[in-house]
Amino acid sequence: AVTSSTFKPLFGFASVPVSSADTVTLPPGYRYEVVYAWGDSIQGPTLGPVFKPDASNTAAEQEKQCGMHNDGMHLFPLPRHHARSQAGLLCVNHEYVDDGLLHTDGMQAWSAEKVKKSQAAHGVSVVQIAQQGQAENARWQVQPSRYARRITAATPIEVRGPAAGHALLQTAADPSGRRVLGTFNNCANGVTPWGTYLTCEENFNGYFALGDAAPSASQARYGITNKQGFGYRWHEFDTRFDASQNPNEPHRFGWVVEIDPYDPQRAPIKRTALGRFKHEGATVTLSEDKRVVVYMGDDERNEYLYKFVSRQRFTSKTRLSSHLLDEGILYVARFEADGRGEWLPLIHGLPGLTVADGFADQATILIHARMAADNVGATKLDRPEWIALHPQTGEGYVTLTNNSERGKKSPVDGPNPRAENVYGQIVRWRENQQDAAALKFDWELFVLAGDPERDSRVTVNGDAFGSPDGLAFDARGVLWIATDVSTSTLGKQAYANLGNNMLLAADPRTRETRRFLVGPRGCEITGFAFASDGRTLFVNIQHPGESPSERSDPSRPQAVSNWPDGPQGGRPRSATIAIRRVDGGLIGT
Ligand code: FEO
Ligand code: CA
Ligand code: CA
Ligand code: CA
């Protein structure tokens, strides 16, 4: 067995204790600054529009400001391909909004302007950031930039791949089925070897209201079942989101979207070959023969793990316009109890995927990828969230965050060993021949998360945590784990000892976990980015101060959190922070 003494330790920081304080807590010797918070101008502090703490910024202003609920992100170097740049283009997802905080009087007096502002607070930011100052005075700041842009729920986006133009994607407003307005519920992300950003549409279903219409089988399978959606109320002023009137509009969301941060004129592209589901993230690597492989989780209880393998190979000439992500095979994972696994192709005509099975063509399989996966015997997982690949071995790690329905709607099995799973686990796998394009793999449980004092099955070696979600390797091979215990679960017994949501470092060799950061009250820790020199770690603090209802009421005293602005600030703000060592050293060592 491997023991921690076998290896030079990967980390040298002191563990941060659990905390319920309304602040960001870091190990001694570390500090952070807020770089980009909801409402900050995409052109930096010297050029407006300036954030108004009473939330009175207009929809037009919000289109030029940081959106809400920062999630997945990546820092692209400037100049391009620069290995040790002190500047870069930060792409940040804005997953969803809290309308109670977004508007001065919350959801009262609902209006077309409020819908526009809500749509403008969704999507993605591209902002230029740079280090200002020297040594311990160095700060990352957003700067005026020709690259700066906001992509929102109303931005024109191109559709490519096998489902582009398909009848199921055509609407009255877009008979071509190739030009969609907007992207939203952008959760985690990915990065391609050719320097583009992938943003992933997750809980898109919640924006569509069905009214009194009965859901079709595919609408039911994707959760488009509510009269009013999840309560975003866009349909009241934007009929696109009335699924009874526009039944094809929901087919235009639930995709992976590619953005070129270096070309601000270029429209984003929805890549339909990667399938339609509630995409958490899209983690990209290359196979032995240089085909592009994208690993993707569908984050809902009892959903699947997918991978896409391109037909063409990556070369140094590959660009966004090469459209490598438009042609290839989508697979879904099956895990066997004996530690082996298989990638099952979702190809039209294979057993379960024929016209008689309800799939007219390959495009229909991609649009209804969940239903295709149901028919080939894929393994239902405990909410697959982020995926990370070890930078040296290529081993894959996936967070299975929790699943209250395990043992009820799906059987307890190998990768999902606990019924009513409140704590979650991390599963890792190794592709045959360490080739990302392999059709078979071996897997094991990396850790069963949780509080060992409350569940004897917990296998945490080191600092305890639950509901792992964000997951990323740094260049040194440290596995960073962010937690997302929902606000309603934080108050429950199982989590009584674990405090606020946190970020931990794990050593993949010894499985030791060490707590590195605890966030403010009511937040979750979402995306990561690393400066190319390894000396800054960017982290997103999402929804500080969230109430259990996930919709705040502005008339409620803001007692839960006023991070990051403090008592004078008015309302809590999701934000990107930059973490560094005071002595300028490598993060985590
Ligand atoms: Fe947006 Fe599954 O987290
Ligand atoms: Ca997540
Ligand atoms: Ca989550
Ligand atoms: Ca979240």
Automatic annotation (TrEMBL):
Chain intervals for the UniProt region annotation (Disordered): 542-574
Annotated transmembrane regions: none
Protein name: PhoX family phosphatase
InterPro entries: PhoX
One Pfam short name: PhoX
PANTHER family: DUF839 DOMAIN-CONTAINING PROTEIN, SLR8030 PROTEIN
Species: Parvibium lacunae
Top-level lineage group: Bacteria
